[in-house]
Amino acid sequence: MVAGMAPVLEAGRYLFTALESWPSAEAAAQLLGVFREDEGLTAYRRLAPEEVPPPRGVAMVKITLQVYSDLEGVGLTAAVATALGEEGIPCNVVAALHHDHLFVPETQGAAALRCLEALARAAKDG
Q1: Can you name the residues that pair with 92 across neighbouring β-strands?
Q2: Coil, helix or strand for 64?
Q3: Domains in the chain: boundaries
Q4: What is the CATH number of domain 8-125?
Q5: Closest residue by Cα to residue 41 from 9, 18, 61
Q6: Concatenated DSSP letters for 10-59?
Q7: pLDDT digits over 83-120, tens only?
Q8: What is the predicted pLDDT for the residue at 97?
Q9: Alpha helix stretches (DSSP H) within 56-108
Q10: What is the pTM of this model?
Q11: Are residues 60 and 46 in contact, defined by beta-carbon separation less than 8 angstroms?
Q12: Torsions phi, psi of 101, nearest 5?
């Protein structure tokens, strides 16, 4: 899977935030996703272009790996997290049915993309 990935830095900025309660249908339509944790609800959503994240928030960008990430596949998340970690780039991985999506700080988006492209090239050259 690593050799086959073609990471793409998507347009837009995103924010992970806590929710006090389950959102209304109208509010939920604005969210990219919600995850229920023991501590409460975490939502992630797209920021408006002019929107400034709250003081404790970090604007993130989304990189889609553009490789079918089999739910029973082994090693993709580990390889990606290791490569980014070696470059000091934090990431939040959201594994969906068709692809894995990485959220990295906006200031490190370009560096993360370069790192992932190099990882894919190295795996192809294997």
Answers
A1: 103
A2: strand
A3: 8-125
A4: 3.30.2130.10
A5: 18
A6: -SSEEEEEEESSPPPHHHHTTEEEEEEETTEEEEEEEEPTTPPPPTT---
A7: 999 999 999 999 888 888 999 999 999 999 999 999 99
A8: 84
A9: 76-86
A10: 0.88
A11: no
A12: -125, 130
